[in-house]
From TrEMBL:
<dbReference type="Pfam" id="PF22640">
    <property type="entry name" value="ManC_GMP_beta-helix"/>
</dbReference>
<keyword id="KW-0548">Nucleotidyltransferase</keyword>
<dbReference type="InterPro" id="IPR014710">
    <property type="entry name" value="RmlC-like_jellyroll"/>
</dbReference>
<dbReference type="InterPro" id="IPR051161">
    <property type="entry name" value="Mannose-6P_isomerase_type2"/>
</dbReference>
<keyword id="KW-0808">Transferase</keyword>
<dbReference type="GO" id="GO:0005525">
    <property type="term" value="F:GTP binding"/>
</dbReference>
<dbReference type="InterPro" id="IPR006375">
    <property type="entry name" value="Man1P_GuaTrfase/Man6P_Isoase"/>
</dbReference>
<dbReference type="InterPro" id="IPR049577">
    <property type="entry name" value="GMPP_N"/>
</dbReference>
<dbReference type="Pfam" id="PF00483">
    <property type="entry name" value="NTP_transferase"/>
</dbReference>
<dbReference type="GO" id="GO:0004475">
    <property type="term" value="F:mannose-1-phosphate guanylyltransferase (GTP) activity"/>
</dbReference>
<keyword id="KW-0342">GTP-binding</keyword>
<dbReference type="Pfam" id="PF01050">
    <property type="entry name" value="MannoseP_isomer"/>
</dbReference>
<comment type="similarity">
    <text>Belongs to the mannose-6-phosphate isomerase type 2 family.</text>
</comment>
<dbReference type="InterPro" id="IPR005835">
    <property type="entry name" value="NTP_transferase_dom"/>
</dbReference>
<dbReference type="InterPro" id="IPR054566">
    <property type="entry name" value="ManC/GMP-like_b-helix"/>
</dbReference>
<dbReference type="InterPro" id="IPR011051">
    <property type="entry name" value="RmlC_Cupin_sf"/>
</dbReference>
<dbReference type="GO" id="GO:0009298">
    <property type="term" value="P:GDP-mannose biosynthetic process"/>
</dbReference>
Length: 461
């Protein structure tokens, strides 16, 4: 049985403004209604696979849980990192957890933010790698290059036609002339960052080549604790682990490395231009997501979150419109979105951090409007879910039910509100919301007061 370990800690800044730190690209449902995380999980289900381990940032815990629930996948473990530590620490954690489950376990380590369109080709490649992994090799998967791309690292393979080939070297991102030479050579593949290994072999590799990382991960796991459906790694211990990739920590040091080259129509979606590459297009090469229109335009991408976006007389242009930010860029400059995000971060702009909609265990809340001493939010509460009993020091709240039924408790008095009914929560009053129904309940919340920050919450048992 193969234990998938899905890495979900990336931030995807090059897909701003749709991708943000609190909801990065692996959670965006823009691929036939599913997110990249969901597609990755579904790619690793079936008789050959155990329930997955998902390793992600603690700020994304409810997004992870919600998206797994949407596709009916129950994780073996959702392991929360208090801060990012590249890929070496998660690889070690997955090996240690798998070894506890089964001394003969195989781990399939893979990113959550890559698109693979030919899943049959991917599964066949994994099947080809199993025998080598059981024999103790750490198997990586290389993507057969289709162009002289300078944005990927490469793997040089020993010449041959076997489905599993020996690795001669890992190669850094090349310049264009070198990438062309790699393409002509035929023995170079793109490094996809996907690995299959026996848990025992990976632990042994860490013990030999990176024992300090393994010791740190062991300590962080030993001090971890359960929080709802999640497992939180100990922050102090985990923060002391080297921030290093598995390539540098292990792959470039061990001898028992193999590679399975494959061509599953893979894309790491590292830019909006890459998204355009994989999207369906009209006769003029234009790709639209949402309510979009094109007139005398060629090879453009337009994304509309909730308003009409129209493109006229332009070529090779990206237009991405969300509720609070708009990006317009030359498609050839799509990699520079990261530089823009860095400059916005330097200004402490909130648009790089969070979307107007924030997900919670009970549903979501979405900012509609804010101003001096007021804020308006739309809220959804899932069936049989409730918010904590709480009060606010600086604000009062007005609630209007839009659809469904909500049970409200204010200062110990409980009653039901249905469509078009409302309630007022005075400043300082203890209150709770609960959806007792079978369908999601929608409501509008108007906050008013001298301070409206999310930290003005006092929770009561």
């Amino acid at each position: 049985m193969i234990l998938p370990c899905i890495l979900s800690g990336g931030v995807g800044t090059r897909l701003w403004p749709l991708s943000r730190r609190k909801r990065p690209k692996q959670f965006l449902p823009i691929f036939q209604g599913q997110s990249l995380l969901q597609k990755t999980c579904l790619r690793c289900t079936g008789d050959d696979f155990a329930a997955p381990i998902v390793i992600g940032n603690q700020e994304h815990r409810f997004l992870i849980g919600e998206q797994l629930a949407e596709i009916g996948v129950r994780a073996d473990t959702i392991l929360l990192e208090p801060e990012g530590r590249n890929t070496a620490a998660p690889a070690a954690a997955a090996a240690l957890i798998a070894l506890e489950r089964d001394p003969d376990a195989l781990v399939l380590l893979l990113p959550s933010d890559h698109l693979i369109e030919r899943e049959d080709v991917f599964r066949a490649a994994v099947a080809d790698a199993v025998e080598a992994a059981r024999a103790g090799a750490i198997v990586t998967f290389g993507i057969t290059p289709t162009e002289p791309n300078t944005g990927f690292g490469y793997i040089r393979l020993k010449p041959g036609d076997d489905p599993v080939r020996a690795v001669e070297a890992f190669v850094e991102k090349p310049d264009l002339d070198t990438a062309r030479r790699f393409l002509d050579d035929g023995n170079y593949v793109w490094n996809a960052g996907i690995f299959l290994y026996s848990a025992a072999a990976m632990v042994a590799a860490f013990e030999r080549h990176a024992p300090q990382i393994l010791d740190g991960v062991r300590a962080a796991l030993a001090a971890s604790y359960a929080d709802l459906d999640f497992t939180r790694l100990d922050a102090e211990t985990f923060g002391q682990i080297d921030n290093i990739s598995i390539d540098y920590a292990i792959m470039e040091r061990v001898d028992s490395i193999a590679c399975v080259p494959m061509a599953p129509q893979w894309n790491d979606l590292g830019s909006w231009a890459a998204v355009w590459d994989v999207m369906p297009k009209n006769g003029h090469g234009n790709a639209g997501l949402g309510d979009t229109r094109f007139l005398d335009a060629d090879n453009c991408l337009a994304y509309a979150e909730d308003s009409l976006v129209s493109v006229i007389g332009l070529t090779d242009i990206l237009v991405v419109a969300t509720r609070d930010a708009v990006l317009v860029a030359d498609k050839t400059r799509s990699q520079d979105v990261k530089k823009l995000v860095e400059s916005l971060d330097a200004e402490n702009r909130p648009e790089t951090v969070a979307h107007p909609r924030s997900y919670r265990p009970w549903g979501w809340t979405e900012r509609i409007n804010t101003g001096d001493r007021f804020a308006v939010h739309s809220m959804l509460i899932k069936p049989d879910c409730e918010l904590s009993l709480q009060s606010h020091v600086h604000r009062a709240e007005h609630w209007v039910v839009v659809s469904g039924t909500i049970e409200i408790t204010i200062e110990g008095e409980t009653k039901l509100l249905t469509e078009n009914q409302s309630a007022y929560v005075p400043l300082g009053a203890r209150h709770r919301l609960y959806n007792p129904g079978k369908i999601p309940a929608r409501m509008i919340e108007v906050q008013s007061g001298s301070y409206l920050g999310d930290d003005d919450i006092r929770r009561h048992a």
